[in-house]
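User: Predict the structure for this protein chain, please.
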Amino acid sequence: MTDYRLFGADTSPYSLKVRAFLRYKGLAFDWISRSRANEADFQANAQQIATVPLLISPSRPTSQDSTAMLAALEADHPEPSAVPDDPACAVLALMLEDYGDEWLNKCMFQQRWGQSPDREAAALRVLTQLYDGKLPRARKAPQTQIAERMAARLPLVGAEAENWETLENSWRRFAGLLNDHLKDHLFLFGGRPTVADFAIAAQFQQMLLDPTPAGWLEDRAPFLVAWCEHMEDPRAGGPFEDLATLGKTLAPLFAEELSLTYLPWASANAASASRNKKRFSVTLGDGIFEQSTQRYAARSFQSVRAALAKSADNTPLQDLLEATGAKKYL
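Assistant: Here is the predicted structure, written as structure tokens:
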């Protein structure tokens, strides 16, 4: 038995995020695709919620939080590094990781479960996983049940019908900007991946499984598609680059996307959580966005703000945040 065991699913972006990180670190691990056959083992180890990923470590408590998993693995196995040498870039990587986990995931969820034929195809993949690759003869009913159950969860993540246009414009805009950046850089911050690469690639890897967003990405974002393939088992291709070198194509990710969507949304969600409100609305670049308050996302954003507070005297970082309109939300 290897030191690490990772319960996951190929249909889970957070599972792919952690699996790719373990591969990058060169760590031996058992990948356990969650199914009916291993459900008892999974439930015996689940500490918080009945969702994947679930990582069993030789030296740390069992975890079901992908961000915490990556931080712990980085601390325990610092090489090859996933933390940029430039302190400004290290903070921006944390911000982009949170963007992928908390905002881009909404877009992925909307694309998968909010439309046909994507939801039907995704439900069949989930059913195949649950039955260890062997579909039951009577598959139509359970396939429909999965699709309906997941579609009913759309409002819980903010992918409501009223927010459809905002979310669709958001991921497409970000994909175009990221594609431009990846024309000249192997990863987001140079020659090595960071937590941001793992988080964002995992969401787009899921979109590439779904026919509608996959067609759009393959037609309009070829560098992003190639990067997603590389991120399944990434290898360092050179050193990290500094903010001065990356800024020309990195800054637009913040100015033209994060400052228009994720940052005002995350700030409003955090304020709503602090007031114990059930719902909130916020004006984004594409209009009003309303949804239920997400408390985990609020805690996650507070961690981003805490990291930024420690870099208050980092002039290049503060200048970029000011110039891109991000600073007022942080």
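The chain has two domains: 4-76, 87-111+157-329.
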